[in-house]
Inverse folding.
């Protein structure tokens, strides 16, 4: 049986959560059947659970604001923001309300809320529908930021976020991953999941069997697509690549990252958001602290240009990290 | 010419569309620009028009969902034409394999190339030793271990190797200078001694620290021109005038000199060093110090910060300059000499062991130290 697609896995994860717990509700724009959401993640859900799926007016602040209220009153809301770019409109609800109550009321008012949103470029959607804005939210205390790759089982992670994580979870789904089949151990790549205290596993993929890796690439979310292609391309070049993709960006599974970075002592960090003051900044600082004098090469960080994302395909490729750029960086740290 | 009608990309967010209704009948001759059918996306109903004349052959039924780029229909030159070749051509075009990783002239993997660079091997040379097939990591390592074996056998004339400087030593075979330089070279991975030239014919054909004395120093230029060495260095310092003359003569003819700097010597990042210098164990060349050419610095020589040392000078062990000392050319230092800050020493000066220089010394001087020792029975 062929593996599920990333989209199918998310759909099934939502259905499992809805079936298991009647407190689970979903709010968002155009989420009802037959449309089923802009990226079809909610397809079939409103038909099966007409009382628990709400289509909303175009107000992201209201979607998250209402969801916060629902979560405070013991429901398990899932808010869908049609494009991750619109998270800016939810920022006040997330930063000044949702993530504060748990601590302000000394643990008495948990806000178990999941905010799901598609992120990323590569589809020519232009400057305001292609961004990966997670770096704006990584510094928010008590916010969990989760981004499944296609090395993960995203449906299981979504199910965990909805039913087992009592904090506010920003759940990032990369648009390019939706139609992709999940990567399972096969002829070219080997994939395994490492359980983490956060409940969101770290995916470890390799393009070799046995022996030590030449280089470790650490990334998240949609970067697994580039990593998988680069790893397949580099098999014939005998470059042994170890890919480490935490499901949770924050909290960070630091021990797993340190352990796998130390295996090769050469590290490339890759993310799709803009360069500088990003996830890679924090990860590289922590790796340098832990692996002081153990690395064979400076950590190489890849990210998008620190500028807007153009709509034209070729210009978008210039701005974003591509498989070619990742491959070049992997070879560069080996020199 | 017969062609397929693929579902165009209707919206950036649409991967497929539903065929609602065909406006033309199968087999009907349609004209370019006529509407063929209506398809429905998640947001709108769109008409698909013919981009050429032809007989319509349906490939999708009403109510069927077609993915972007997949054919809705074909427009054929004749109603009887078989559509299979068109579909086959379209699917082979799509399945055209990506170019293989190893193409063109390159016969080795990138790993092999990187590894060869790390090991100072020429990947071309490794590839030549492997008659056919792709050269990988294993072939590079095998080549390296074969080389390691040949290295252990004594060398007379060395062949050129990338990343390795083959050094020819001039003089010092009898006085010990050559042995000091060979001792330093033993710990320098990127410099290999290839032989010694010495004026004493009795030594020719002998080994000094395992390295052969190949002939007189007058052959230095020939050795270099015939590709038997990459650079030379002078090892004798008994006669500084002769040392200077040989250096000027050979460098004037284009023979390259090299520095031999012991692994334990400490040359600070901002120090500048010319060429032809022997800098032996535990020397210190301080920040912003400038060292000329063709000097011989024995162990524990300290050229402190901002000092300026000329050329063709020789040092006994443990000569220490304080900061901002200036020294001319052809100066010979005994051992254990201390030079105070800002002192200037001219050219062609000889300074005795144990001297403490507190003021500047003019050129062509001899500095004697007044050190009295009284030895009496205990």
């Amino acid at each position: 049986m062929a593996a599920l697609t990333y989209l199918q896995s998310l759909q099934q994860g939502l259905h499992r959560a809805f079936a298991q717990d009647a407190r689970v509700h979903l709010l968002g724009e155009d989420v009802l059947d037959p449309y089923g959401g802009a990226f079809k993640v909610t397809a079939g859900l409103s038909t099966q659970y007409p009382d628990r799926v709400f289509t909303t007016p175009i107000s992201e602040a209201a979607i998250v604001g209402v969801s916060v209220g629902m979560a405070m009153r013991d429901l398990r809301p899932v808010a869908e923001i049609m494009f991750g770019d619109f998270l800016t409109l939810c920022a006040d609800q997330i930063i000044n309300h949702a993530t504060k109550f748990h601590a302000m009321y000394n643990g008495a008012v948990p806000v178990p809320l999941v905010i799901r949103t598609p992120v990323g470029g590569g589809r020519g959607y232009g400057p305001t529908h292609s961004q990966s804005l997670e770096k704006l939210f990584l510094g928010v205390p008590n916010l969990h930021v989760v981004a499944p790759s296609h090395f993960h089982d995203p449906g299981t992670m979504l199910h965990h976020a909805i039913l087992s994580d009592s904090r506010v979870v920003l759940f990032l789904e990369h648009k390019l991953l939706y139609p992709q089949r999940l990567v399972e151990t096969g002829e070219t790549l080997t994939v395994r999941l490492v359980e983490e205290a956060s409940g969101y596993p770290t995916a470890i993929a390799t393009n070799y069997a046995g022996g030590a890796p030449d280089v470790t690439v650490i990334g998240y979310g949609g970067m697994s697509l580039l990593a998988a292609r680069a790893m397949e391309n580099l098999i014939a070049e005998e470059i042994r690549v170890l890919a480490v993709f935490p499901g949770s960006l924050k909290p960070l599974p630091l021990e797993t990252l340190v352990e796998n970075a130390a295996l090769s002592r050469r590290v490339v960090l890759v993310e799709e958001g803009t360069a500088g003051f990003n996830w890679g900044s924090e990860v590289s600082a922590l790796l340098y602290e832990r692996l002081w004098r153990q690395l064979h090469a400076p950590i190489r960080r890849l990210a998008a240009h620190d500028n807007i994302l153009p709509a034209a395909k070729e210009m978008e490729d210039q701005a974003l990290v591509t498989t070619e750029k990742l491959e070049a960086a992997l070879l560069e740290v080996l020199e | 010419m017969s062609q397929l009608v693929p579902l165009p990309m209707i919206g950036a967010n649409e991967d497929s569309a539903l065929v609602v209704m065909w406006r033309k009948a199968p087999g009907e001759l349609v004209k370019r620009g006529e509407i063929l059918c209506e398809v429905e996306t998640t947001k709108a109903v769109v008409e698909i028009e013919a981009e050429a004349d032809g007989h319509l052959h349906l490939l999708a039924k009403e109510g069927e969902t077609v993915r972007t780029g997949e054919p809705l229909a074909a427009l054929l030159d004749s109603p009887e034409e078989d559509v299979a070749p068109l579909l086959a051509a379209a699917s082979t075009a799509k399945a055209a394999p990506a170019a293989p990783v190893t193409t063109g002239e390159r016969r080795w993997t990138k790993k092999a190339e990187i590894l060869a660079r790390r090991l100072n091997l020429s990947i071309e040379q490794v590839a030549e030793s492997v008659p056919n097939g792709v050269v990988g990591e294993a072939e590079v390592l095998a080549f390296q271990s074969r080389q390691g074996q040949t290295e252990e056998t004594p060398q007379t004339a060395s062949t050129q190797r990338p990343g390795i400087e083959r050094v020819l030593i001039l003089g010092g075979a009898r006085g010990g200078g050559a042995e000091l330089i060979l001792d330093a070279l033993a710990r320098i991975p990127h410099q290999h001694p290839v032989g010694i030239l010495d004026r004493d014919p009795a030594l020719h054909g002998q080994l000094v620290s395992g390295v052969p004395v190949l002939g007189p120093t007058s052959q230095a230029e020939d050795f270099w021109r015939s590709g038997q060495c990459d650079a030379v260095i002078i090892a004798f310092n008994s006669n500084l005038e002769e040392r200077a003359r040989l250096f000027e003569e050979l460098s004037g003819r284009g023979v390259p000199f090299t520095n031999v700097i012991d692994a334990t010597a400490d040359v600070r990042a901002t120090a500048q060093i010319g060429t032809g210098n022997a800098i032996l164990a535990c020397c210190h060349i301080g920040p912003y110090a400038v060292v000329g050419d063709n000097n011989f610095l024995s162990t524990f020589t300290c050229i402190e910060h901002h000092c300026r040392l000329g050329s063709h000078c020789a040092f006994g062990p443990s000569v220490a300059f304080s900061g901002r000392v200036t020294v001319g050319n052809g100066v010979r230092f005994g051992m254990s000499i201390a030079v105070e800050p800002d002192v200037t020493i001219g050219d062609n000066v000889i300074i005795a062991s144990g001297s403490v220089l507190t003021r500047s010394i003019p050129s062509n001087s001899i500095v004697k130290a007044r050190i009295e020792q009284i030895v009496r029975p205990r």
Observations:
- Chain A touches chain B at residues 35, 38-39, 123-125, 179, 214, 233-234, 236-239, 331, 334-335 (CB under 8 Å).
- The mean pLDDT of chain A is 96.
- The radius of gyration of chain A is 19 Å.
